[in-house]
């Protein structure tokens, strides 16, 4: 477990990549990898609670994932519906507050109602905020925020855009982890990750465990976060995160 004497990132974001490759290497359908990925997420949520992480944001389904083979998309939707039924009571008992972030147009009425019910059932929980980015894209998020401000007649300033983003209810991520060996953001939290520390893991998401989470946290703890300031300013105590990241 990560050392308690060092700062634990308050907000961790994860691109959960590698489910399909994990299944393919085992001569299984790709959907089997996504099912195993749910188990990995369950472990990760528990590990974050145990380590005192306040917010976990995960990339579950991107707006580009609709372009995958129809049987895989259909399987992912079924997994999501099943996970809502199974996991929400467990998450609620564990003190997890759920938020589903993304475009809901195009999802089935049953799916949308399941998301709303899960958010309502966990709204009072305080141990961990779990943001599940589902049918989400970073460019969609920015465009949506800009359109919202234009509709309201508000100026397109950085502060106003920040407040209009889909994750305005939480501070920006301190640490962004991507599994699966790839080193790109893939349209995930483009606005919010401006000052996030990045950690790329070679483990496929179904293989991601507490030890790998601790490796990411240790990498975060070893870095100097300057937010545009100099090392001397940080050492003197003036190197603080900008605006909403202090929350």
From TrEMBL:
<keyword id="KW-0460">Magnesium</keyword>
<feature type="binding site">
    <location>
        <begin position="18"/>
        <end position="21"/>
    </location>
    <ligand>
        <name>substrate</name>
    </ligand>
</feature>
<protein>
    <recommendedName>
        <fullName>Isoprenyl transferase</fullName>
        <ecNumber>2.5.1.-</ecNumber>
    </recommendedName>
</protein>
<comment type="subunit">
    <text>Homodimer.</text>
</comment>
<feature type="binding site">
    <location>
        <position position="66"/>
    </location>
    <ligand>
        <name>substrate</name>
    </ligand>
</feature>
<feature type="binding site">
    <location>
        <position position="17"/>
    </location>
    <ligand>
        <name>Mg(2+)</name>
    </ligand>
</feature>
<feature type="binding site">
    <location>
        <begin position="184"/>
        <end position="186"/>
    </location>
    <ligand>
        <name>substrate</name>
    </ligand>
</feature>
<dbReference type="Pfam" id="PF01255">
    <property type="entry name" value="Prenyltransf"/>
</dbReference>
<feature type="active site">
    <location>
        <position position="17"/>
    </location>
</feature>
<feature type="binding site">
    <location>
        <begin position="62"/>
        <end position="64"/>
    </location>
    <ligand>
        <name>substrate</name>
    </ligand>
</feature>
<dbReference type="InterPro" id="IPR018520">
    <property type="entry name" value="UPP_synth-like_CS"/>
</dbReference>
<feature type="binding site">
    <location>
        <position position="34"/>
    </location>
    <ligand>
        <name>substrate</name>
    </ligand>
</feature>
<keyword id="KW-0479">Metal-binding</keyword>
<keyword id="KW-0808">Transferase</keyword>
<feature type="binding site">
    <location>
        <position position="197"/>
    </location>
    <ligand>
        <name>Mg(2+)</name>
    </ligand>
</feature>
<dbReference type="GO" id="GO:0008834">
    <property type="term" value="F:ditrans,polycis-undecaprenyl-diphosphate synthase [(2E,6E)-farnesyl-diphosphate specific] activity"/>
</dbReference>
<feature type="binding site">
    <location>
        <position position="68"/>
    </location>
    <ligand>
        <name>substrate</name>
    </ligand>
</feature>
<feature type="binding site">
    <location>
        <position position="22"/>
    </location>
    <ligand>
        <name>substrate</name>
    </ligand>
</feature>
<comment type="function">
    <text>Catalyzes the condensation of isopentenyl diphosphate (IPP) with allylic pyrophosphates generating different type of terpenoids.</text>
</comment>
<feature type="binding site">
    <location>
        <position position="30"/>
    </location>
    <ligand>
        <name>substrate</name>
    </ligand>
</feature>
<dbReference type="InterPro" id="IPR001441">
    <property type="entry name" value="UPP_synth-like"/>
</dbReference>
<comment type="similarity">
    <text>Belongs to the UPP synthase family.</text>
</comment>
<dbReference type="InterPro" id="IPR036424">
    <property type="entry name" value="UPP_synth-like_sf"/>
</dbReference>
<feature type="binding site">
    <location>
        <position position="178"/>
    </location>
    <ligand>
        <name>substrate</name>
    </ligand>
</feature>
<feature type="active site" description="Proton acceptor">
    <location>
        <position position="65"/>
    </location>
</feature>
